[in-house]
Amino acid sequence: MDIAQITRYKTIKLYGLNPEAVEAVIQKKINELEGVNYVIELHDGRIHIVLSASANSEEEAKETIKPMYTFLKKELGEFIYSTRKEDTLEAIVVKLLEKYELTVSTTESCTGGLLAARFINVAGVSEVYKEGFITYTNKSKRKRLNVDKQTLKKYGAVSKQTAKEMVMGLVMQTDSDCGLAVTGIAGPDGGTIEKPVGLVYIACFVKNTTVVKKYNFDGDRMQVREQAVSAALNLLRKTILEVL
């Protein structure tokens, strides 16, 4: 009589590596192990590694996965934001804000409210999320965030300098502990050789520390915007962990 096998799954969620780099890490170990399978899932810049193993018992399947799971956690630790299937990146960020009793506000240009929406996806976020602005035009950046007219003229709306002034104006206007500002070129038009489609600057403020990062995303307009949102959430996550 055949015994039905039980399949056990473990998920590792990470941000900050490309799929090729993740595959290379997996290949260092996978051939040493029997019975372990994996799938790499792509989610707007986030990567989920789903490990699986089948055996005659739950415990045996769990033990089969364990060496690979432990290896990946060690090798990819700095990029991992969760090992729970049900966790989202935004939920992890909200938990950190709650843990350190921080508030956050957002201001967005090219993402047009998608970042705010990701925060609002999390039930109970009103305890930490204060306000969200969509400052799409230069005029709105000056009016709502006090971005200097000369900064916009000299460096342009999509620049490190403008992103920094956006986030500083945001936290001043909202009296928030943390802030995120996103400005970029989502396409399909508007790009130049110096500033191509997919160029995005994200500024993050956490307790008097300001970080500005430059990103170059591939894909269509929506893909660029969604990747920018994931990048912003992860930047806030990492900055909180580094500062506090």
Quick structural summary:
By secondary structure, this protein is an alpha+beta fold. The protein is 40% helix and 26% strand. The chain folds into two domains: 6-82, Alpha-Beta Plaits (2-Layer Sandwich), CATH 3.30.70; 89-243, Maf protein (Alpha-Beta Complex), CATH 3.90.950.20.
Keywords:
244 residues, alpha+beta, Alpha-Beta Plaits, Maf protein, five-stranded mixed β-sheet, four-stranded antiparallel β-sheet, 26% strand
Largest sheet entry: 5 strands, mixed
Extended strand count: 9
Detail the poorly predicted runs.
none
| Beginning-to-end CA distance, first to last residue | 58 Å
Structural domain tally: 2
Structural class: alpha+beta
Q: What is the arithmetic mean of pLDDT?
A: 96
Name the helix and strand elements from N-terminus to C-terminus, one letter apiece: EHEEHEHEHEHHHEEEH
CATH class of the largest domain: Alpha Beta
Helical segment count: 8
Binned, the helix content reads 40-55%
The CATH topology of the largest domain corresponds to: Maf protein
**Strand numbers in spatial order across the main sheet:** 6-5-7-8-9
Strand content: 25-35%
Rg over CA atoms, rounded to whole Å, is 21 Å
- Please tell me the CATH architecture of the largest domain by its name: Alpha-Beta Complex
Envelope shape: elongated
